[in-house]
Each structure stands twice: as structure tokens, then as C-alpha cells.
# Entry
Amino acid sequence: MAQTETYSQIKQKSIVSTVSLFIQSGYSAFLGLVANLVVTIILSPKIFGIYITTLSIISVLNYFSDIGLAASLVQKKEVTKDDIKTTFTIQQILIISIIGIGFILTNFIKTFYKLPTEGITLYWALLIAFFISSLKTIPSIFLERKIQFQKIVFVQMIENTIFYLTVILFAFLKFGLLSFAIAVLLRAFVGLVVIYSISFWIPKIGISSKSLKKLLSFGLPFQASSFLALFKDDLIILFLGKILGFEALGYIGWAKKWAEAPIRIIMDNISRVLFPVFARIQNNKEKVAHLVEKIIQYQTSLLTPIILGMALIMDKVVFIIPKYGKWAPAIPLFYLFCISAFFSSYSSPFINLFNALGYAKIPFIFMTIWTISTWILTPLLTKLFGIYGFPITIVIMSVSSIFVMLKAKQIVKFDLIGSVYKPILSTIIMGISVSIILLFVQNPYLAIILSFIFGSTIYFFSMKNIFNINLITELKTLIKK
# Structure
């Protein structure tokens, strides 16, 4: 599987893949918004907290399903049949073992978190879906190596349609947590069938010691960083669920989900494409630097006004949606998570850069520092500030992304300030304007509508007339190139 594509071909595939991911995200975001509204209107914060806790348990198990072999297949310039066979075999051995352990731990988890019967059913459904989804790994890797994310996107759109519509339907039928259980199983089965119809592969069993050694040389440091991310993010959620209770965790989960929605939609999609792209052009530092600058500029232009706009109007949105006022206690948490979302978004591209260029130990070092700091600060600040302790910790950790960027500048020379200051200043101008509107317009519906119209107009106007950047023209130029 040699990579003979030119930089122009890689760039073209990258743009198609990124645009496809954004289309999928927009579609999924709409369905997710509707589903999230329905679920959070019908279900209580406590039930939502149980769902978040259960997902975190599965995330913990998911870490042990792959020792970095899949990432190694994407990062390698060339892969062999032995590489693929070895990766699949090792992964399935791990996953089957983990699922067995997961079922054995059922009583312990039920007792420890005092989960209701529906919570255990959801836990079992996620374990089964976990196995089914693992069978999609190799077909997905084939598409990622070819930078054909538009095909992966097609599968995800079908999966998300099944998942969200099922959640909405069964939530209306008052199935509670079982709505999620049914939805995850349907999504897993349908996704497996569809991806094999697009990227067919006959599973083969076998382990090549030579292939395994080479794959692990990159995979283990990469997976070590993933383990620390797991320890930092998902295990801390399990800790909070036990210490603060499901209702408080429900508020934290709601605030975090909404505040991070822009970076989940925008940065997660860009990052998925960046890893294989950086890996393909890793020998040309000049092109890598140019790509880094463009990514930073575009993400700042998109994320900054969206995050600030959401922060300004969320307190009104909560009260205009029927039965949504119960989430009002989470608004201050939402503001904190908005701050952390802005800063943390700048670490993602560079973590992908380090991994793609073969510097997997650098993300591991950063992740070690973040993990230790998170586990020191979260219990301490939770004891001092209660429910606000974890969000404050996340804000502190996110600001440290500046050190990630400084380290990246030692490897690739790029202009950071020149890439971000224009959209940030335009966002500040927009924020002042929207604040004035919200101050004088008392009707919440009218205030939200005027904030959106005038806020976006002022932002685009300032970018074009003050900084001479036409975002629409920039997008057209990017696509043409």
C-alpha cells in the first residue's frame, strides 16, 4: 500500500474529506440538537447523569481495546497484509477479553454507583455495541489512509440518523434510559453492514511478530497518551458521579456538552483529517507550517464568534424552551466550559501534528502533566467550590495549551499571532455589540434573533472592512485550490 499521491492530490482529498465531515457534522448536529432537547426536556438531570456515567465506563474499557495499532496503520507510509492481520487479531483478543471482564463487573458497578435496572441494561447494550463497532476498524482504516473521509461520513450519517431518531421515538414512548440502549444497538448493527458494503474486507486471523514490533514502536507511546487522556477525562467523570451524585453530574454534563459542541463539530472533524494529512507531508516542513497557519486561522475565525455568541445568549435560550428552566443551575458551569473550550481547541491541531510527525512522546509528556494536575486540582477545588471545582480545573488546564503551541514552534516555524489576532479582535467587537442589544431589548425571543442577525453581520463586516478578510471568498479560494 504505497503512498504515491502528490501533495496536490492529498490536498484535494483533504478538502473533500473535511467538507464532507462538516456536512455530516451539520446534519448530525441538527439531529443531535433535536434529540438532546427532547431527552433533556423529558428526562431529569439525574437520569442524564446516569447516561453520562455509563458512557464513561465504556470509554474506560475502550482504551484497552487497542494498544495503538490502528493509529500505527494510519501513520505508517506503507502497510502490509501482515500489519493488517496482526492489528485485527490483537484488537479482537483484547476486546473479547474486555467485554468478558465488563460483564463480570456488572454487580460491582451496579452496587458502586447504585444504578437502576435500566442503567445496567444500557451498560450491557454499550458492551455489545462496543464489540460490533470494533469490527469496523480495519475498513475505516483503509478509507482513512486514502483520505476518503466522505465515505466514512456517509456511514456516520446513517448511524446518527438511526441513533437520534430511535432516542427521540423511545423517549417520547417513556422508555427512559432504555431509549439509549435500543439506539446504540441499532446504530452499531446498521453501521457495520453499511461500512462493509463500502470498504469490504475479509477478516483474517494471525499475528506477525515482525509487524507487531514495528507497529508497537509508534503505537505504545501513542496509546500511552490516550490512556492518560482517559484517566484525565473519563475516570474523573466516574469520580464526580460518585462524589457529587448523578444530579450534579447531569448539570456538569449538560454544560460541558453544549459549551464544547462547536469544537466537537469543527475541531474534531479537522483533527480527523489532519492526522493522515500531516503524516503524508511530514518530510516537507514548509508545507506543514503553511497548513498549520491556515488551520489556526480558520478555526479561530469559526470557533471564537460561535463560542462567545453562545455564552451571551444561553441564559435566555434556557428559559424560552418549554420545561428547560430546570437546567438554569448549570448556566454558570456553561460559562466556565466555554472559556476552556476556546483555549483547549488550540492544543488539538498540534497534538495531531506531533503524532503525525512521529513525536508521540511529546503528547505523552503533556498528557502526563495534565492528568496529574487534573487529579490534584479536581478533588481539592471540588472540596472548596463543590460543583464548580471540576469546571475551574478544566479552565486552568486549557490555558496551558499555550505551552503546546510554543513546543510546536520549535519543530515547525509558523506565525501564531498573525493567524489569530484578526478574528479575535473582530469577535470582541461583535461581543460588545451583542451585549448592547441584550441590554436594551427585553423580549427574549427578539433579543436572540437580533443578536444573531446583528452579531454575525458586525463580525463579517469588521473582518472584511477592518482586516480585509472576506471569509466567504477565503472559503471559495480554499475549495478551488
Notes: The CA atoms of residues 362 and 444 lie 47 Å apart.
